[in-house]
Design brief:
It comes from Roseibium hamelinense. By secondary structure, the protein is α/β, with parallel strands linked by helices. The protein has 12 helices and 10 strands. Bound molecules: ligand C2E and calcium ion (3 copies). The site of one calcium ion has 4 residues, from strand 6. One calcium ion binds next to strand 6.
Length: 277
């Protein structure tokens, strides 16, 4: 703490090279994980804001690391993106989610599933064909699948978005604009995007109840979505107060720890048995 500038810089360098090493380790281990079955999918419920009834679930990748335990995407998704492994990871998640969705259907549980898609996956010319193939192979109906693309990605390359959404929307797959509000999209651009749902970023939801401004922002997004005939999902709802505000301004769907955390498929199934529907 009391060391001079030079030593601070020294520690900084050690720290950085340590991180670089970590990345290489994560990459190698991730390659290994992709060959085996360490990657798994958790499901977080999306609920009707008013009734709390489950209307679907978001598939979120988890890594059952042999030494480090269960890892959330924050620990490895950047490395996956940088190394291109995200393509295989995303493909794995989609297959696992669709197979699980099919298995729930076989138990008379109709659970629409949302799956996150990265920019690298969209850039793959085979992407649309691969998705349709997975649906076909798993027997999960296209109209129960929604693909989530972040606003930043969608705005960075609208042409790719058009190319991908065309055939997939024709097949009945829905598209959601993820982390909405963080990408500074203009209304004119938004209007052109062939999406079905806005997911309002959790940063706005977590401000609800704390500042009057946040309420107006969410209200404005809702009004805009309504004119454009988009569905809206509020992400990261943690408190009853946030839920009450969302309900009062007419938000249809919500997701967050208040209703349910991401759960593995078995726990999600058990949780469904005890929830209002
Ligand atoms: P996201 O798509 O915005 O997903 C929502 C994240 O918010 C999840 O974090 C979820 O666990 C967390 N969350 C849900 N409710 C609450 C809440 O009430 N409060 C708070 N503070 N957080 C909440 P998670 O699972 O750690 O995933 C982080 C991000 O990693 C995701 O953000 C998504 O961008 C990415 N990701 C996850 N799975 C995949 C995947 O299969 N493919 C790709 N490409 N990205 C993924
Ligand atoms: Ca998402
Ligand atoms: Ca999000
Ligand atoms: Ca996010």
């Amino acid at each position: 703490k009391h060391a001079g500038g030079n030593s601070l810089r020294f520690f900084d360098q050690v720290d950085r090279s340590g991180q670089a090493e970590d990345r290489l380790v994560v990459e190698a281990e991730l390659r290994h994980a992709l060959r085996g079955d360490e990657l798994t999918v958790y499901y977080q419920p999306k609920v009707n804001c008013e009734t709390s009834e489950v209307v679907g679930a978001e598939a979120l990748v988890r890594w059952n690391h042999p030494e480090r335990g269960l890892l959330a995407p924050g620990a490895f998704i950047d490395v996956a993106e940088e190394t291109g492994l995200i393509t295989r990871l995303g493909d794995r998640v989609l297959k696992l989610a669709c197979a699980q969705g099919r298995s729930w259907l076989d138990q008379n549980r109709i659970i629409p599933l949302s799956v996150n898609v990265s920019v690298r996956q969209l850039q793959n010319p085979q992407f649309a064909a691969d998705v349709l193939k997975t649906l076909h192979e798993t027997g999960f109906p296209p109209h129960l699948l929604e693909l989530e693309v972040t606003e930043t990605v969608a705005m960075a390359d609208p042409d790719i978005v058009y190319r991908i959404t065309g055939p997939l929307r024709d097949a009945g797959i829905r598209f959601a604009l993820d982390d909405f509000g963080t990408g500074y999209s203009s209304l004119a651009h938004l209007r052109q995007l062939p999406f079905d749902t806005f997911k309002i970023d959790q940063s706005f939801i977590q401000e609800l109840g704390k500042s009057e401004g946040s309420r107006s922002i969410v209200q404005t997004i809702l009004a805009m979505a309504q004119t454009m005939e988009y569905d809206v999902v509020a992400e990261g709802v943690e408190t009853r107060e946030q839920q009450a505000i969302l309900q009062s301004i007419g938000c249809g769907t919500a997701q967050g720890y208040l209703f349910g955390v991401p759960m593995d498929a078995d726990i999600f199934s058990a949780w469904m048995e005890n929830c209002p529907s």
